[in-house]
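Standup notes
- DV: blocked on the single-chain target, sequence here:
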Amino acid sequence: MKILVTGTAGFIGSHLALKLLERGDEVIGIDNLNDYYDVNLKLARLKRLEDYQAYTDIRADISDRETMEALFKKHQPQRVVNLAAQAGVRYSIENPYAYIESNIVGFLNILEGCRHNKVEHLVYASSSSVYGANETMPFSEHDNVDHPLSLYAASKKSNELMAHTYSNLYQLPTTGLRFFTVYGPWGRPDMALFLFTKAILAGEKIKVFNYGKHRRDFTYIDDIVEGVTRTLDNPAKANENWSGKTPDPATSKAPWRVYNIGNQSPVELMKYIEVLEQCLGKTAEKELLPLQAGDVPDTYADVEALVQDVAYKPSTPIETGIKQFVDWYKNYYRYK
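- DV (later): unblocked, structure below
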């Protein structure tokens, strides 16, 4: 297939593009290479894709309407995976406008491109952060998600609503994937595992929020990419039994779905740090701090819907995943 992937210089996007190319798909990759974090890391991720003749690299911003209209018209992708977004819960408090431009305006351009160019299926990144103040565990797609705790979370919930209107009005199959704390090689430098590894190797103190007590459904990148690929290959279908009297938040009469994509095995942050210490052979000096504004204490994914619909099977324990990350980190940054 010819697949448009946005955010190909990103953590998940680069891994997904590589997987699609390896299985023989043609990939049109877009990224604006913004400087939210190290651009050299983004360029190094893209370099892994250069050897594939079926890969087209485009430097563009999805919030640029004219550029996106021209791109869709020229390349005519059959399916689209939208992973381009301004990421980060904490940064959304400092720079809210960046989230509206990329996550709202940019996503509208993607939807319009899909609508006018007969795209077969749009898969897009949502986030576990949409669950916000919800305290029912594990988080289920059938739960209400009307109480986001950050603008980042609100932008992702908005994406789900926007996608629903296009699925309803134009019968465009759309699937939103609520990612749960993705980690692994080539990860984001603003994420905990990256920050902890860098600090521990440098002999510096690490900041441990919520006193290390909060739990995260840490999900290894290979499991995420497998889930995204399986979802992409199975366009969303309408739920014929959906009723407006007892509305199901996860499905619709339109060809629209949202799924959790996580490990279904939450781990306490302090345990995560212990495994990292073992892999590094060094003990961290910890600064214990309260929960940060916008953060949720726990995330725990119910992924049964994705298991049933596309046979999704997360299988990587944190002991394996963290070791893979540490091996990559030491090699990439030339640690002996």
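- Follow-up: The longest helix spans residues 96-116.
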